[in-house]
Amino acid sequence: MTTLHPDHDHEQEGEIEIRHHFDDELDEIRRGLVQMGSLVVENTRRAGEVAVENRLDLVDAVRDGDQPVNALYRILEKRTFEILALQQPVASDLRFLIAATRILYETERSGDLAVNIANRVAAQNGFPQLAEIQSLLGRLVTESTKIFTSAVEAIANLDPEIGINAEESDDVVDDITERFFGTVHAHSAEIGLESAVELSHVGRFLERIADHGVNISQNVTYVMTGTFPDEDSDHLPE
Amino acid sequence: MVNDMDEVTNTNVGLAPDAADIDLDEMIAPTGDEADDANPVIIDVEDLNVFYGDFHAVKNVSLPVRQNEITALIGPSGCGKSTVLRCFNRMNDLIETARVEGKVEYHGVDLYSKKVDPVEVRRHVGMVFQKPNPFPKSIYDNIAFGPKIAGYKDNMDDLVEETLHRAALWEEVKDKLNESAYALSGGQQQRLCIARAIATSPDVLLMDEPASALDPIATLRIEELMYELKKDYSIVIVTHNMQQAARVSDRTAFFSIEVGDGGQRTGRLVEFDHTTTIFTNPHEQETEDYITGRFG
Q1: I need a surface site. Which of A126, A164, B73, B196 has the fewest CB within 10 A?
Q2: Fold classification of B55-134+202-291 (topology level)
Q3: Is the CB of B1 inside 8 Å of chain A's CB atoms?
Q4: ipTM over 0.90 threshold
Q5: Could you tell me which residues come within 8 angstroms of residue A81 by beta carbon, excluding any fewer than 6 positions away?
Q6: Pick from B15, B22, B171: CB nearest A152
Q7: Do the Cβ atoms of B280 and A16 come within 8 Å?
Q8: Number of A–B residue contacts, CB under 8 Å
């Protein structure tokens, strides 16, 4: 199990473990973030199916799937706030809790975006099925979900490397998004302007989910190293 | 909703095995100020007033101490928090001029009833003081002393070992039980005093500034020990260190001083609530000012 303070090697055997209970509280937050992120990954995949395959039957499942994400958001935010108030965290503990509040926000927003995708498809009663568009949209779903999954793995394993390499993976998503916009635009007469606009929104939502994933991974890097991967340039979320 | 969440969680995303094993029921269960007051009241205080001669030390204090919780009493020097603590096992009886009015009930029994033997009270309500004060005896005898006087008949070695385990001290002292308690470090001496207090099987532990004479690491060890002990005991702690109250306690009582017309300084209870509430959103401005360091 990966925790912020995995061992207490400096303590003698049998001695009372200092701040063991505090460590448990921090790890509960970490596991909660992983759980929340996992739910968002699942819901993004489901929303992707709705968009790519016009699975209108899954729209309600996507909407319902966001409720536990919101519930966890409220619980974890409250717990984080309480720990900050009561435990006087410093150093890595403080960085973890501050990062947790940011990760909570990024994850919750991503959950909302998955719901937005399903809602856009539902409002159009499905999109015109065009192989070229579907293919690019499918790739966008795959790549964005991959980035978000990596972000959840970064939290699960407290792995700083994922955040360091996250921008490169995001470039792939940005490329596909640009090609997707171009393709939708090229076929706009064929599929109708309204569908073209809505499809573009869906593409943008998926690209945003990937961005949130990048921010999450970079926050984990911050927790583990004390700096953001791109601190020298511009670490502010886009 | 929980069932749905279990379903979703089970279709995991290939994460580490521990990634999604969190107990959602537990996560969603209310905490802090939302939690119900399920733990029974073990010491009930109502309208407590304490006098030392003509001096009105504490006035009109009402608060319940709940089972298996840590209740912290905080406030500036002279606010009466130690005085209140000492009412819980009749330690004020030792001061000739002290007079206690109001209700202090332990399991529904009036602690100040004439029928109640204060020595018996202290067997049920143990106490640990600011300065570690082990007897000038061996580690073993420090633990065995109380039970012997109380007529303990079973295997004393077993009791000593079990008690030291509970106080998280056994591993550190098991090879030197016959050495003087004074040979231990300050933090170990204080844990020995906690062990001595629980050796006679009380169900309440009163702690008066138990860590203020210790270094930060020894302090954190005492706090972790308190967290373990509350599974079996109810604890009331007086502390000057409000961060300590924040770290360890479930509920916090904030006391302040009221200055009378004649300049008489009387302690009073300003606010009593869940510790999370006191330290995140206290109801009284006076509490807010004290915990944020604006006065006191």
Answers
A1: A126
A2: Rossmann fold (3.40.50)
A3: yes
A4: no
A5: B280
A6: B15
A7: no
A8: 110
